[in-house]
Amino acid sequence: MNTLLFRLFLLALLASTTLLSACKDDKEDPTPDEDNEQITTLIYTLTPAGGGTPVTVQYRDLDGDGGTAPTIGTLTLAPNTTYTGTLELKDETKTPAENTTAEIQEKAEEHLFFYEPSGTNLTVTRTDKDKNNLEIGLTTRAVTGAANATGTTGTLKITLRHQPGSKNGTFTPGSTDVEVNFPTVVR
C-alpha cells in the first residue's frame, strides 16, 4: 500500500510542477524585439559639395498615424549641384527625445533607406554600408540636373525599411518604419 501512495504522491508532484511551469511569467524569458522603430521626426540635410549653405527639410508627426496631419517641408535645391546628405531621425514621443538615428546605425544590418525622386531632376545614391557590405542610406550623395520646368514641383520619397534577418539590398523584405514624400523643386 505504501508503494501505491508513494507513486500517487510522485504523480501529483509531477503534475503540479508541470502546471506551475506552464503558468510562469513570460518576462522571465524575453524574445528579441523586432518591432519597427518609432519615428516622429525625419530631418534630411543636404550640404553643397563645393561649399555653401546647407539645405534642410523636415517631416514631423508627433501623434503618429491619424490625429493631426504631419508637417512636411519642401526641399528646394540648386540646379547642377552635388550635395552630401545626412539623415537624422528622432522619436519625440519620449522625454527627452530619443535619437533613433543612433539605434538605426547600431542595427544597420536590419535597416535600408530608399530614395525615389519623381518629377524632378534629382538622383540620390546611398554612400554608407553595414557590416555585411550592404548599403544603409543614412548618408547620401545627391546630384541635381537642370532646373525644373517653369517652377514645377516633384517629390522625393524617402522610405526606411526594417529588415531584421532578411536584408538583401532590395525593398521587398521587411516592413516600413517611415515613409515621407517631400515636395521637391530644383531651381
TrEMBL record:
Keywords: Signal. This is Type 1 periplasmic binding fold superfamily protein. The lineage of its organism: Bacteria, Pseudomonadati, Bacteroidota, Cytophagia, Cytophagales. Residues 1-21 form the signal peptide. It comes from the Bacteria.
